[in-house]
Amino acid sequence: MSEYRNYGTDNRRNSCIFFSPAEPIHWTPDLKVQLQTANHTAIGRTRRMPTQATTLIPSDKITPIFRITELLNSVCPTNPQLTVLKLQLEWAGNNSQRCELAIELSWNAETNATDTGYQDWRETTTDTDSIFGGATDKWGRSEWRPADFSNANFRVRLLAVDATPLIHVDWIRVKVYYSLHSIYADNDGGASNVTDNSAVLNGRAISTNDTPPEAFIYWGASDGGTNKQEWDNEIAMGFQSGFFCTNVTGIAGYETNYYRCYATNNLGHDWADSTASFTMNDTDSDYMPDWWENLYDLNINYPNDATNDFDNDGINNFHEYICGTTPTNKESRLEIVSLNPKGNAHLDFEIRLGSGRIFRILAADNAYDTKTPVANIPNQSFEGIKKWIDTNAIIETDQRYYCLGVVYRGFHYTNIEEWAMYVQPREPSVKYMVSVPVDLGTNNNLNSTLGKQIAHGLSAGFNTNDSDCIYYRTTNNQWAFFHWVTNALGETNWWDFEADTKADLEITAGMGLWIVKGPSTNRPMQNCVFTGRSFVNAPAILFRTNNVTPDGWTWTAFGWPFAKSKCHCNYGTGATPSNQLGFAEIGYGGLTYDYTRPHADRGDQIWVWENNTFKNVYWLIGRKTDATAQDYNGRWWNNRTGTFAEFSLDPGKAYFYRHHVNTNGIPSGTNFWWQPVSP
To answer: Biggest alpha carbon distance in the chain?
Structure first.
C-alpha cells in the first residue's frame, strides 16, 4: 500500500471534481468502478480543469447494475449499522515529477463533504494502487447510513493539489463494512405538508426481532437533541414497524421548529441520527404567524399591528398571541381575577388564562425584590379560569406581591398588573392608624369587599358600646364614626349610628383611617388581611388650614397607597436631596438657621402613631432667612433625636399631618394639594 497522509482542510487544494460511481457501492466484496475503458482520464491543474472536468463524469461509460437500497432489501433487510469503509484507486502522474492527489467523500450529492480526507503523492508514470480508510474509519463523520451510499447521494471527490503535473485515474474500488443493528429510528426525510399552522412529522422504526418498537416523536421550538426533557412536546406513536407520521397544528410561524424520532423495545433504543427542522409562515416578520393573524383578521403584510391593542384591554396583539388569548375580546386577557383569604392561613386565587400555554405565578415578599416563579399552571387546551392556593401565605409573611407570566416560543411576557396581600395586626385595646393598600375598583366601599377586608380581625357588636369601629376625618375637619355591628337578622355591616343607616363611604387611595379594637378578651385575635390590586395611581390629597383659630393649623389623616415605600433619607449635611416627599414649596416650612433647631410652632409636621402613642414627630424645614445660614428647604427634622430625619411612608399605614400657616402669629399659609407619586 502506498503512503498516505490525512490532509484535513488543506488550503493548497484548488482543482476538484465530484464523480458518482456508475455501479453502486456494495457491501463486501469490493466493487470496482472503471472510469475509462481505453484511455486514462486525467485530473489537471486549475487551468486544465474546464476541459478535463467533463470527461471525468463516467455516467455515459458505465451502466448502473443496482442501487444500494435494493441491495439492502435482499442482503441486509434488518438494516445494517455501518462501521464504515475503505477506498482504493489506481492512478499515476503524467511524468516523473512529484504529483499530489487528495480525496474526500460526500453523502448528499456534493452539498457537504467529509471533514476528514486523505492525500497521497507520486513521482512516477507507472500505475499504482493507493488504499485509504478501513473497516473502522468514518472519514470524520459521526454516523453513516445506508441511504448515503445510493447513486443519488454518494460522491468521491478527487482534488489535484496545486502545482502538480497531470494525474491519471483508472479505477476506484469502494468497500463498505457493516454489522447488524438491533433497533433503528429515523425521521424519514423530515416534515411534509407544512402549512401556515401545521405540519406532518414523518418517521420510521425498525427492529431485528419480532417485537415492534414503541415509537415517539419529540418536537418543539428548540432542538432538544437526544435528551427527552429538553423537548417541548412528546407524541407517543404506539408500536410501529416501519413508517409512521402524525399531524401537528397551532405551530408558531416566526421561527424554526424541530423534531426527532425515537424507538425502543427489549433490544434497546435508538434516536434518529439528527434533528429535522421546518418553519411556518410569517409574511411580515412580526413574530405572529400568518395563520393566527388570519384567524383574527389582522394584516399579514403589516408588521406594526403587533403593537396595536384592538380590544383596548391593555395588552397588545403580540402579547395576546404569547398569552394564548383573543386579541379581539376585551374579556380575554391574562389576569388575576380575584384573591381572597382562605381561612386564617391560605390565599385563594382565581386566574384567567389563555390556551395552549404554560403559565407561571411569580411572587416576592418585598415590593423592591424581583418576583420569582412560585407555581406553574399546566398547559390547557382552552381559555378559562383556573384556581390556585398559596398555602400558608398569611402566616409566612406580612406582605406578598404577585403577578402572572408566560414563556412561549422563546418570548417572555409578564402581566405588569400586580396583586398584593398585606397582613395588619388587630390586637385588643389598640387604636391603629391605617390606610388601604389595595385597589378593588368599584368595590372600594365600606359596604363592599373592601369593607369586609377592613373588618377582618374586628368584632361585631350590637351597639356603639360593644362593637369595634373606624373613624375618619371629614372634609370639614370633623371625625365621623362607623361601627361594625350585627343586626337582628344576623347580618354584619358597617353602621352609621348618627344617620341610623348602613355606612356609605368610598375609601380612596391615600385616605387615613383610625381602627379602634375593643378591649374584650372574648374578641377574636385575628389579623386583618388586605388582598387586591396594587395602586398604580393615586388622587391628590387636600391638606387644609383653619384660619379661624389664632394659630391657623389643623390635622389631616393621610396614608401611603403604593406598594413601594417612599423614603425621606438622610445622607448628611449638604448631601441630602431636598423635597424627597414632595411637600416643599406647597407645605409650610419652619424657618431655621445653622445654629438653631426648628421649633414645635414652626413648620408643617408629620406625626407617626404606633402602639397607642405618637412614636415620632418630624418638622418640615423651610427656606433660610439669614444670608449666612445654609438652606435646608424641603428637609425634615426629627424632634425626638434632634437630628435631620430619616423615615419612610409605608403601604397600609397612615399618618397625621399638621399644617401650619403662621410665623409669629401672622397667617401666611393656605390649603394645598399634595400628589403622592409611586417610587
So the answer is: 128
- In this prediction, residue 74 carries a pLDDT of 44
Assign 595 a pLDDT band (cuts: 50, 70, 90): very low
Nearest to residue 420, comparing CAs of 384, 386, 369, 376?
A: 369
CA distance 355 to 241: 35
Report how far residue 258's alpha carbon sits from residue 191's, in angstroms, rounded to the nearest whole number: 9
Q: How far is residue 458's CA from residue 477's CA, in Å, rounded to a whole number?
A: 26
- Beta-carbon contacts of residue 549 (< 8 Å; ≥ 6 apart): none
Measured between alpha carbons, how far is 402 from 379 in angstroms, rounded to an integer?
Answer: 20
User: Which CA distances in Å does 467 have to 445, 448, 479, 499?
Assistant: 19, 19, 18, 17
Q: What is the pLDDT of residue 606?
A: 94
Give the N- to C-terminal CA distance of the chain in Å, as an integer.
Answer: 82
Contacts 24+ apart (CB under 8 A), 495-498: 495/467, 497/463, 497/464
Give the chain's radius of gyration (CA, Å): 41
List pLDDT tens digits, range 132-161: 888 778 888 877 877 777 767 777 777 766
Spell out where 240-364 has E strands: 242-249, 256-265, 268-271, 276-279, 335-342, 346-353, 359-364
Cα(121)–Cα(15) distance, rounded to whole angstroms? Answer: 15
CA distance 556 to 563: 22
Give the span between the Cα atoms of 511 and 435, in whole angstroms. 6
Distance CA 280, CA 250 (A): 10
Tens digit of pLDDT for each residue in 620-647?
887 766 666 677 788 898 888 888 899 9
Task: Tell me the C-alpha distance between 351 and 438, whole Å.
Answer: 18
- Residue 337: DSSP 8-state: E
Rounded alpha-carbon distances, angstroms, from residue 171 to 33, 53, 56, 332: 5, 16, 11, 72
State the Cα angle at 512 between 511 and 518, rounded to 5°.
135
Task: Classify 356 in phi/psi space as left (phi over 0), alpha (psi -120 to 50) or beta.
Answer: left
Q: Provide the grid cell at 17.
A: 471534481
Task: Give the span between the Cα atoms of 355 and 288, in whole angstroms.
Answer: 16
Closest CA to 436 of 118, 122, 653: 653
Pairing mode, if any, of strands 528-534 and 419-424? antiparallel
**500: its cell numbers:** 341610623
Share of the chain above pLDDT 70, in %: 79
Q: What are phi and psi of 169, to 5 degrees?
A: -120, 125
Task: At 38, list the grid cell.
Answer: 481505453
CA distances from 350 to 148, 158, 436 (A): 57, 70, 22
Tens digit of each residue's pLDDT (9 = 90 or more) over 534-548: 999 999 999 887 765
**Residue whose C-alpha cell reads 497522509 in the numeric block:** 5
Among 256, 265, 304, smallest CA distance to 284 is for: 304
